Amino acid sequence: MLDTSPEELDEHRLGLKAAREQRLKLISQCSERLLARMATAAQTANPKVLLHPAASRAVVFSSNQLAAGVTDFNGTLGLKEVHRDWEAKRWTEAATELRDRALETGAEGATAVRRMGVETVGRAKTAKDRALDAGAESIDAARRMGNETLDRAKLFSDQLTNGLSGRVLRQRSQGSEEKY
After folding, report:
1. CA atoms in the 13 A half-sphere facing the CB of 54
2. Residue 4 dihedral angles phi and psi, to the nearest 5°
3. What backbone torsions phi and psi does residue 110 show, to the nearest 5 degrees?
4. Residues contacting 88, CB < 8 A, separation 6+
């Protein structure tokens, strides 16, 4: 070392500095990828809180712990901090959101049934009026056409009602299974 020139020492120091910066850059990139994976895990676990409440909370908790450790490590190295805490969704919050969506869907279905009923009544009246205009022989045809239209409306209404009630029963049974 004593017989090396000052220029060689400066070049060696610059090389060490460049190597250190490259390692820090690589550590920073790996840390960011790891934190992105933890964010994805936490964001994936939150919507599944209804099916797996304990596991969902554990994933979010573990993600937060790991992210805090990575952030502390990065801070020790002098790298920028990119950590963000994720909050675990509570089971009751998820259940409330699901209930609200079911009610919205039910209300939309009821509106569609009501609109379909109004349209059906309008068609039946139009058919009756046409039959009366055409004469007595068309009354039977109008009656058949009106009955067919009403039957279709009933069928549509029954299918929608059965679908909605089936969905609500399934959701309730899934919710009661998770209590035990």
Report:
1. 3
2. -90, 150
3. -65, -40
4. 42, 45, 46, 49, 56, 57, 60, 61
Distance CA 22, CA 12 (A): 15
Structure-token pair, residue 75: 């801070």
CA angle at 123 for the pair 120 and 126, rounded to the nearest 5° = 150
Alpha helices for the chain (secondary structure H): 6-45, 53-77, 91-134, 137-179
Tens digit of pLDDT for each residue in 137-180?
Answer: 566 666 777 777 777 777 777 777 777 777 777 777 776 655 54
Helix 137-179 / helix 91-134 crossing angle, nearest 10 deg: 170
Residue 72 is which amino acid?
D
Torsion sign over Cα 32, 33, 36, 42: negative
3-state secondary structure of 51: coil
| Closest among 69, 65, 44 to 56, alpha carbons compared | 44
Q: Are 79 and 24 in contact (CB under 8 A)?
A: yes
Cβ atoms 84, 67 nearer than 8 A: yes
| End-to-end Cα spacing for the chain | 74
Q: What would the two tokens of residue 20 be?
A: 């250190």
- pTM of the full predicted structure? 0.47
Residue with tokens 């349209």: 119
Distance in angstroms (rounded) separating the CA atoms of residues 63 and 114: 48
